[in-house]
Write a structure and sequence with these properties.
By secondary structure, the chain is an all-alpha fold. The protein has ten helices and two strands.
Length: about 260
């Protein structure tokens, strides 16, 4: 009888140990799956980061080859962007090209819609008008930040300056104030302040004057015309340089 009891105890102990080993194995497999998911997510994030970083560098295409002369020069410029600092944007990169294109469309829209809205529409707080102004102001503020991280072209030597400190100081001394005034929603800030401090007695009497003043403040957005002129000037310089380089190469080919 004692032998049978011992056999039963040994059997139950073996079952318990087997269950523990199976449970440990299952936990280990779940942990491995979790690590694999984490590793896959990190690889995907690294891939996206590399792709986005590549967009901020000049690509090896016809335009960059004409600007820098050879593929080695383009690759050297790509290395300069990588070592320049965090989130430095090359002015000849694909990212900056498409962003400038978006900004040109936005600026043309602003220069048409804002004067028409101020002149022919008395109500400046409709949902459509608010959405348009908030969206455009946000985009222009993003552009303001990006200008602190975009390389500049030295007009004398045609060298691309990628030093973050030089870029920042150059922008602060040149167009920052104008861009800042044209980007912040001064008219809406004024309306919020007035609504917060006005009493019911003065609100009706001052309503017309406030509306007129906010319309005048809305005209500050027309300072974005300076950005439009600058962007067009930059594109003219780029394509003019490209045309000059192409003409020089064609002339050399004819001479040889």
């Amino acid at each position: 009888r004692q032998d049978s009891i011992q056999k039963n105890n040994m059997g139950s102990q073996n079952i318990k140990e087997h269950g523990n080993s199976v449970g440990f194995k299952g936990d280990r497999e779940e942990a491995m799956v979790g690590f694999e998911d984490l590793d896959g997510a990190s690889r995907q994030y690294g891939f996206m980061q590399r792709q986005f970083g590549a967009m901020m560098q000049p690509g090896v295409n016809k335009f960059s080859l004409r600007m820098f002369g050879s593929q080695k020069a383009v690759e050297k410029e790509q290395e300069r962007v990588q070592t320049a600092g965090y989130w430095i944007i090359h002015p000849y990169s694909d990212f900056r090209f498409y962003w400038d294109l978006i900004m040109l469309i936005m600026m043309m829209g602003n220069l048409i819609i804002i004067p028409v809205g101020i002149t022919f529409f008395s109500e400046q707080t409709t949902t459509t008008w608010l959405v348009f102004n908030v969206a455009s102001d946000t985009i222009f503020l993003v552009d303001l930040v990006m200008n602190f991280r975009t390389g500049i072209v030295n007009e004398e030597s045609s060298e691309i300056i990628l030093d973050p400190k030089v870029i920042k100081m150059n922008y602060l001394k040149s167009w920052f104030v104008v861009d800042f005034l044209s980007s912040i929603p001064v008219d809406y800030i004024f309306l919020i302040v007035e609504k917060g401090f006005d009493s019911e007695v003065y609100k009706t009497a001052r309503a017309l004057r406030i509306v007129r003043f906010t319309k005048i403040l809305s005209l500050l957005r027309l300072l974005r015309l300076s950005r439009l002129i600058r962007y067009i000037h930059q594109w003219e310089e780029i394509f003019h340089m490209t045309y000059d380089l192409a003409s020089a190469v064609a002339f050399l080919d004819m001479g040889s």
